Amino acid sequence: MTSPDPDGPLAEQLLRFTRRVHRIQKRHLQQCGLGVTPAQSRLLRTLAHYGSPPRMADLAERLEVVPRAVTTLVDGLEASGKVRRAPDPTNRRVIRIELTDDGRKALRELHGARRSAAEEILAPLTDEQRAVLGELLDTLIDGGAERSC
User: In angstroms, rounded to a whole number, what is the distance separating the alpha carbons of residues 39 and 4?
Assistant: First the structure.
């Protein structure tokens, strides 16, 4: 006879909460009307953290996806004018990805949409509960070395 998994219900709650966060963020992204998918939003946010325009391979590594996935995301963002491909000034075989002015504007709007989503998600909590949740999340984010399955 196997003993019940004490972390099972907690793991299920975490999965359900994660799905809820994604669903609410997606709705807020759609409401801001930018026509940006959650994956494109993530690429834009990642791109904004670079001091100079990165290569596609750099983005793929940072996003932990295959390069082909970045190509597809960049294609969509380039078509909407939010990013552009630019040749590397020192190596003509390398293409860099730059944010455009429209991309920077979109980032500001996306930030507002994410903030609205966070406010909706956290609305049921008191200030004290939010502080406790913040501490717990910091512990989970920073805690221990990653373990494999």
Answer: 37
Cα 49 from Cα 39, distance rounded (Å):
16
Report the candidate in 96, 18, 3, 2 with the shortest Cα–Cα distance to residue 53. Answer: 96
85: β partners? 97
Record the pTM: 0.76
Alpha-helix runs per DSSP H in the chain = 8-31, 38-48, 56-63, 67-79, 101-122, 127-142
First and final CA of the chain: distance in angstroms? 23
How many residues are listed for the chain in this entry?
149
What confidence tens digit (pLDDT) does each residue in 40-73 have?
999 999 999 999 999 999 999 999 999 999 999 9
Say how far apart CA 25 and CA 17 lie, in whole Å: 12
Q: What are phi and psi of 87, to 5 degrees?
A: -70, 145
